[in-house]
Amino acid sequence: MQAVIVASLDDDKAEEIVVLDLAGRASFADRMVIATGLADRQIAAMATHLIDKLAEIGVKRVQTEGASGSDWVLVDAGDIVVHLFKADARALYALEKMWGADLDEPV
What is the CATH number of the domain that holds 9? Predict the structure, then answer.
């Protein structure tokens, strides 16, 4: 599923696609994909295309938030959560910082 998500975003000219491994760190998903779009319309189109691509591989229960024109759209595909941002919103929320492995404390 991750390969389909990344390929779909790449096809739609998403920028700065990042995949974060959340396994064992979060209960809501195993992976988080973060990408940037240039405009509301592009982000909405990326979300729509992504949902279509996921349906093609049998992922039917996909939830979205913010798809009606905002700086941030969330696509919840179960094991993988996708965040599509405009650049300013991505910098503001800084999810890579929040969930990045560099913040893990040594065991």
Answer: 3.30.460.10
Please report whether residue 62 resides in a domain.
yes
> Residue 44 is part of which domain span?
2-88
Cα–Cα distance for residue pair 106/44, rounded to 1 Å: 39
Q: How high is the pLDDT of residue 25? A: 80
Output the CA–CA distances (angstroms, integers) from residue 80 to 39, 51, 105, 106, in the order listed: 23, 12, 24, 25
Dist. CA 72–CA 88, nearest whole Å: 10
63-65 and 72-76 beta bridge pairing: antiparallel
Span 47-83, pLDDT tens digits: 999 999 999 999 988 999 886 767 899 999 989 999 9
Helix (H, G, I), strand (E, B) or coil at 59: coil
The alpha carbon of residue 46 and the mean position of all alpha carbons in its chain are separated, in whole angstroms, by 10
Domain count, the chain: 1
Q: Is the pTM of this model over 0.85?
A: yes
